Task: structure prediction
Amino acid sequence: SQQGEEDPQALSIQEGENATMNCSYKTSINNLQWYRQNSGRGLVHLILIRSNEREKHSGRLRVTLDTSKKSSSLLITASRAADTASYFCATDEGDYKLSFGAGTTVTVRA
Amino acid sequence: GAGVSQSPSNKVTEKGKDVELRCDPISGHTALYWYRQSLGQGLEFLIYFQGNSAPDKSGLPSDRFSAERTGGSVSTLTIQRTQQEDSAVYLCASSLVLTGRDGYTFGSGTRLTVV
Result:
């Protein structure tokens, strides 16, 4: 079953702008992960944030986690055409399998 | 290997036929997962293997689906008597740590089309 829900479903931005997407989930988690998928094929792991962390950075990515609101956000700064992809949040509830949301499709216009 | 390898990359089959999808995980990764992704949707968990433990089959949608993992390495997902609703991309992933705390590594998937 899907635990995470991403918002918005789709996002279109100009190259150089920032892209922000949100993920809400229902139950307590050990960690939350963000993945990128190009062209409907394999997913690439971007970043993992643990339940006791509030913010994490990796290059142009910034992830926040608010466990009281059961939500997370992914910010991509200074977007590039290569960032065009679908982005998924996935939650680890401690039962060794990740639950994925339906994703946010990001289009970066040149 | 350097990554998770899945084969075939594409498979078109007639309704009612059986299909086998293969996944070769990263060497040394003890955990292996199968997910299914229908068009424009998120990932649906199917089955999980960890070492020599009994697999978690709780996500398999029907008894037409089965999977095995030989020697703790290569896994095969078998779908018997395929139906059109089985059409999807089947993704395999592996991880080093039991709960995937360091993230999963996904293969490129097998796109299954049942006609």
